[in-house]
UniProtKB/TrEMBL annotation:
Chief localisation class: cytoplasm
GO biological process, one term: UDP-N-acetylglucosamine biosynthetic process
PANTHER family reported for this sequence: BIFUNCTIONAL PROTEIN GLMU (PTHR43584:SF3), NUCLEOTIDYL TRANSFERASE (PTHR43584)
Protein name per Swiss-Prot or TrEMBL: Bifunctional protein GlmU
Catalytic reactions of this protein: N-acetyl-alpha-D-glucosamine 1-phosphate + UTP + H(+) = UDP-N-acetyl-alpha-D-glucosamine + diphosphate; alpha-D-glucosamine 1-phosphate + acetyl-CoA = N-acetyl-alpha-D-glucosamine 1-phosphate + CoA + H(+)
Organism: Bifidobacterium animalis subsp. animalis IM386
Entry cofactors: Mg(2+)
Domain MobA-like NTP transferase: 6-137
Nucleotidyltransferase found in the keyword field: yes
UniProt pathway: Nucleotide-sugar biosynthesis; UDP-N-acetyl-alpha-D-glucosamine biosynthesis; N-acetyl-alpha-D-glucosamine 1-phosphate from alpha-D-glucosamine 6-phosphate (route II): step 2/2; Bacterial outer membrane biogenesis; LPS lipid A biosynthesis; Nucleotide-sugar biosynthesis; UDP-N-acetyl-alpha-D-glucosamine biosynthesis; UDP-N-acetyl-alpha-D-glucosamine from N-acetyl-alpha-D-glucosamine 1-phosphate: step 1/1
Binding residue positions for acetyl-CoA: N391, Y392, A428
Positions that bind UDP-N-acetyl-alpha-D-glucosamine: 9-12, 23, 76, 81-82, 146, 161, 176, 233, 338, 356, 371, 382
Transmembrane segments: none
Keyword list, A-Z: Acyltransferase, Cell shape, Cell wall biogenesis/degradation, Cytoplasm, Magnesium, Metal-binding, Multifunctional enzyme, Nucleotidyltransferase, Peptidoglycan synthesis, Repeat, Transferase
Length: 460
C-alpha cells in the first residue's frame, strides 16, 4: 500500500520534561526521539514525510532536515493542540495538489516506535476497510493517556483525555498511542471543525475520530509490543523506558551467546555489534557503532564509543573512542583513548596512558603513565613509563615516529616533529629533539647537582 503522507507531530514543548530543550530533541539510547521516530516512519517510504514544528521551531526543523533533507517542515500557528498540528500539516500537503490515499500520523515522543508495528497497523487498516484506524495498547496504569471508549459491540466510539474523563471512562485501560492511519478524504472531513471546548483548551486530534465515525468506519489495532508505543512525557518515564529497552537489548545479546555479567549496569546502544563468547563485565557503556569480537573481554567500568575491539582483546576500566583495538591487545586499567588510534595485535596501552591519533605496531607496549599523540610506533617496541610526545608547539600538531624493536627509557620527552629509527635504545629522562638513526643509543645530558649537608628551610 502506498503511503501518501506521514505526519510526525513535533510542535509541542514537552513542558513536563522541564527542559530548555524541546522534548523531541532529548536522547534515547544515543539518538533523539525525533530521529528514532523518523527512522521508523521513513522506512515505510511515504511520498511525503512532514514534520510539524512550533516550539523552538528552527531548532527542531534543522534537526529534522539534517536527518532527511527532503522532509516537509510544517509550522503550526499559535493555536495549540495535536488536532491543530494536523490541520496545519494537511493544509500544506494540500498545496501540492488534492490528497488521496493513506495518511499516517504519529506523535514524536515514542522513542521505541518501530517500523514493524506501523506496517502491521497499515495492513490492518487496508484489510478492515475502515476510514480511520487508531493504534492502541492496554496498560496496567493508563494514567495520562487518552482512553479508548467502545460501545457494547466493541466499536470505537471516541477517545477521552485524562483531564476530560469521568470515573468510568478513566477506569478503561485501553489507551490511544497517538498513532493513527486515515484515508486522506476522511481525515480532511474529520479535522474540518475541531474546537477547543475541553479541559486543556486545545484542538484535540482525538476528537477527529468522533467526526470520522459519521463518515466512515473507525477501527482500532492493538500494538503487538506495548513498549514500542510507550510515550515519554517526563524524565521519570524516560529513565524507566530506557531501562526496560536496555534490559531487552542485553537479554537478546545474552541469548546470542554474549556473556553479560550484570545487565543492570551494562548499557548497550542499538547499533553496537557483539560476537558470541565476548564477555562484558559490570559497569560498561557500549555506544555508537562499537563492535566487539569473539573472546574479547570488556570492563569492568569501560566506555566504548564507536570503538572496534578485535578477537581476544581486553579493555579494562577505560574510555575508548573511535579507535581500533587489535587482536589480543590489552588496554587499561584507566586508559583514555581519544579518536584515531590503531592499536596492533598483542599490543598494550596500560595504566594512566592517554593516546590520540597513535598507531601502535604489533607487540608494542606503552605500559604506564604516558601520552602518545600524533605518533606512530613500530613493532615490538617498549616505551618506558612517564614518556610524553610533545606534539603541540602552540600552533601546529607535529608528528613523532618511533621505529620497531626500540627500547625507550623511562621519562622520555619527544619534541615533535622527530624520527627515531629501528633498534634504538634511549636513556632514562632523555629529551629527544633531533632524529635518531637506526641502531643508535641516545641519551641527553641531565646534570646531577648535589649540595652536601643541606638543611630544609624549616630547620634553618
Ligand atoms: C496525546 C493524546 C492522547 C494519547 C497520548 C499518547 C491528544 C489530545 N492526546 O496526549 O490521547 O494517549 O498522546 O502519548 O492528542 N504536539 C504538536 N502540537 C501541539 C501539541 C502537541 O505537534 O500543539 C505533538 C507533540 O510534540 C507530541 C505529540 O503531539 O509529539 C503529543 O503531544 P503531547 O503533549 O505529548 O500529548 P499527550 O498529552 O501525551
Ligand atoms: Mg505525550
Amino acid at each position: 500500500m502506498t503511503l501518501t503522507a506521514a505526519i510526525v507531530l513535533a510542535a509541542g514543548e514537552g513542558t513536563r520534561m522541564r527542559s530548555s530543550k524541546p522534548k523531541v530533541l532529548h536522547e534515547f539510547a544515543g539518538k533523539t526521539f525525533l530521529n528514532r521516530v523518523m527512522d521508523a516512519v521513513g522506512a515505510l517510504d511515504p511520498e511525503t514525510l512532514a514534520v510539524v514544528v512550533r516550539y523552538q521551531a528552527q531548532r527542531v526543523a534543522e534537526a529534522a532536515r539534517s536527518y532527511d533533507d527532503a522532509v516537509l517542515i510544517v509550522e503550526q500557528d499559535e493555536i495549540p493542540g495535536t488536532g491543530r498540528a494536523v490541520q496545519c500539516a494537511m493544509e500544506q500537503l494540500g498545496e501540492r495538489g488534492p490528497l488521496s490515499g493513506t495518511v499516517l500520523i504519529t506523535a514524536s515522543d515514542m522513542p521505541l516506535l518501530d517500523t514493524s508495528a506501523l506496517k502491521q497497523l497499515l495492513d490492518y487498516h487496508r484489510d478492515s476497510g475502515d476510514g480511520a484506524t487508531v493504534l492502541t495498547t492496554v496498560l496496567d496504569d493508563p494514567t495520562g493517556y487518552g482512553r479508548i471508549i467502545r460501545d457494547a459491540d466493541g466499536n470505537v466510539l471516541k477517545i477521552v483525555e485524562q483531564k476530560d474523563g469521568n470515573s468510568s471512562e478513566l477506569a478503561v485501560r485501553e489507551v490511544n498511542t497517538s498513532v493513527y492511519v486515515f484515508d486522506a478524504a476522511v481525515l480532511e472531513q474529520a479535522i474540518a471543525n475541531l474546537n477547543a471546548d475541553n479541559a486543556q483548551g486545545e484542538f484535540y486530534l482525538t476528537d477527529a475520530l468522533t467526526v470520522a465515525r459519521q463518515v466512515s468506519k473507525v477501527g482500532a489495532f492493538a500494538a503487538p509490543d506495548p513498549l514500542s508505543v510507550e510515550g515519554v512525557n517526563d524524565r521519570v518515564q524516560l529513565a524507566s523506558l530506557a531501562k526496560a529497552h536496555n534490559l531487552r537489548v542485553c537479554r537478546q545479546w545474552m541469548l546470542d551467546g554474549v556473556t553479560i555479567v550484570d545487565p543492570q549496569t551494562t548499557w548497550i546502544e542499538d547499533e553496537v555489534e557483539i560476537e558470541s563468547d565476548a564477555v562484558i563485565l559490570p559497569g560498561c557503556f557500549l555506544q555508537g557503532h562499537t563492535t566487539i569480537a569473539h573472546d574479547a573481554v570488556v570492563g569492568p567500568y569501560t566506555t566504548l564509543i564507536d570503538a572496534t575491539v578485535e578477537l581476544g582483546a581486553h579493555v579494562e576500566r577505560s574510555r575508548v573512542q573511535e579507535s581500533r583495538i587489535g587482536r589480543e591487545a590489552n588496554i587499561g586499567p584507566w586508559t583514555y583513548l581519544r579518536p584515531g588510534n590503531e592499536i596492533g595485535t598483542g599490543s598494550k596501552a596500560g595504566a594512566f596512558v592517554e593516546m590520540k591519533k597513535a598507531h601502535i605496531g604489533d607487540g608494542t607496549k606503552v605500559p604506564h603513565l604516558s601520552y602518545v599523540g600524533d605518533a606512530d610506533l613500530g613493532e615490538n617496541t617498549n616505551i618506558g613509563g612517564g614518556t610524553i610526545t610533545a606534539n603541540y608547539d602552540g600552533v601546529h600538531k607535529n608528528h613523532t615516529h618511533i621505529g620497531s624493536d626500540v627500547h625507550i627509557g623511562a621519562g622520555n620527552l619527544f619534541v615533535a616533529p622527530v624520527n627515531v629509527g629501528d633498534g634504538v635504545t634511549s636513556g632514562a629522562g632523555s629529551v629527544i629533539r633531533h632524529d635518531v638513526p637506526d641502531g643508535a643509543m641516545v641519551y641527553s645530558e641531565n646534570t646531577q647537582h648535589v649540595v652536601d649537608n643541606w638543611k630544609p628551610a624549616w630547620e634553618r
